[in-house]
């Protein structure tokens, strides 16, 4: 029976110990929300793709903050929450502008498909944000 549980225990142990694995999990969850909302808004409600991307990213904003704070960086200190949220919000607006600029470039200028363009944009921004979160926003437990 222990042999069957070994892979699960290993995965849980890796999740608990690896900041990067937790970041990928949290970011992947938020990215899934973004991509699904973008697809639904564009495909079923005929919303302009940049407006849909803005709405999707805004809807996942709180979930993303909570996942990064409590799951990724395991920061349960509430004394810095307002400051962290303010910094996170500023980074959100910069990320939103960059995401929309990348989407416009990929879709309008390079003629890429929307959903793969959104995924690539999210991955590029996530790489930069990881270090910003770790160094400036969630410093106590990173």
Automatic annotation (TrEMBL):
Its main location: membrane. It is a multi-pass membrane protein. Residues 22-138 form the GtrA/DPMS transmembrane domain. GO terms for biological process: polysaccharide biosynthetic process. Pfam families: GtrA_DPMS_TM. It is found in: Membrane. GO terms for cellular component: plasma membrane. Keywords: Membrane, Transmembrane, Transmembrane helix. It comes from the Bacteria. The chain crosses the membrane at residues 20-41, 47-67, 87-107, 113-133. Belongs to the GtrA family. This is GtrA/DPMS transmembrane domain-containing protein. It comes from Candidatus Taylorbacteria bacterium CG10_big_fil_rev_8_21_14_0_10_41_48.
């Amino acid at each position: 029976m222990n042999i069957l549980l070994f892979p699960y225990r290993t995965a849980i142990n890796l999740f608990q110990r690896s900041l990067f694995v937790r970041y990928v999990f949290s970011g992947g969850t938020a990215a899934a929300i973004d991509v699904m909302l973008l697809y639904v808004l564009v495909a079923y409600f005929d919303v302009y793709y940049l407006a849909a991307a803005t709405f999707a990213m805004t809807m996942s904003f709180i979930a993303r903050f909570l996942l990064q704070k409590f799951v990724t960086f395991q920061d349960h200190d509430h004394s810095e929450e307002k400051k962290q949220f303010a910094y996170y919000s500023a980074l959100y607006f910069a990320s939103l502008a960059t995401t929309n600029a990348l989407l416009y470039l990929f879709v309008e200028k390079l003629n890429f498909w929307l959903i793969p363009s959104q995924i690539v944009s999210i991955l590029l921004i996530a790489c930069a944000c990881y270090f910003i979160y770790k160094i400036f926003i969630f410093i106590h437990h990173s």
